[in-house]
UniProtKB/TrEMBL annotation:
Species in which this protein is naturally found: Flavobacterium swingsii
A Pfam family: Sulf_transp
InterPro entries per UniProt: Sulf_transp_TsuA/YedE
Protein's UniProt keywords contain Membrane: yes
Record's protein name: Uncharacterized protein
Keywords: Membrane, Transmembrane, Transmembrane helix
Transmembrane residue ranges: 35-55, 67-86, 111-133, 139-159
Length: 165
């Protein structure tokens, strides 16, 4: 019985990218400053491109503007090209670690999760990526969606083994 539980845990964890490519290298705390810098630059780009604008998000969900679809489509294309290049040229991380990609099975949980995520995004105008930039611009009301995003993540983690993967 224990072996069966271990296999289920492995299958569930294999869906989680961080568990596949997680670095085992130990770094000093100041190595994380690069993430702060990239995050700040990303936030500035989000603000200047109006990606964090509640009005732009509402336009997208009402099919009134192409702006957000263009941004999301561009990001998808950059991702597709990046993965293709990483696979073709066997590119490694900056620390020399191999980047692994594993096929994922499609399941109904992805549809259900996507609908819940999209509904929350449409209702609040806050997506987990730009939510910190929204808070940084003074839209402190987005602390509420941030709180519930954290709660939702915790609930998912708590019930993860019982959910359809």
């Amino acid at each position: 019985m224990k072996n069966k539980d271990q296999n289920k845990d492995f299958e569930t964890r294999s869906l989680d990218t961080v568990c596949i490519n997680e670095s085992h290298l130990k770094h000093q705390w100041y190595h994380n400053i690069k993430y702060l810098i990239v995050g700040l630059l990303f936030g500035i780009v989000f603000i200047k491109a109006e990606i964090i604008s509640w009005y732009r998000i509402q336009e997208m969900f009402r099919f009134q503007s192409f702006h957000m679809y263009g941004v999301i489509g561009s990001a998808v294309m950059v991702g597709i090209i990046s993965v293709f290049l990483i696979k073709k040229f066997n590119i490694k991380t900056i620390y020399g670690e191999k980047i692994e990609f594993h096929d994922k099975k499609f399941n109904k949980g992805q549809i259900i999760g996507g609908l819940i995520f999209g509904s929350g995004w449409a209702l609040t105008g806050a997506c987990p990526g730009p939510i910190f930039a929204q808070i940084g611009t003074g839209a402190t009301v987005t602390i509420v969606p941030l709180f519930f995003a954290i709660v939702g993540t915790w609930v998912y983690g708590y019930f993860r083994n019982k959910l359809p993967h």
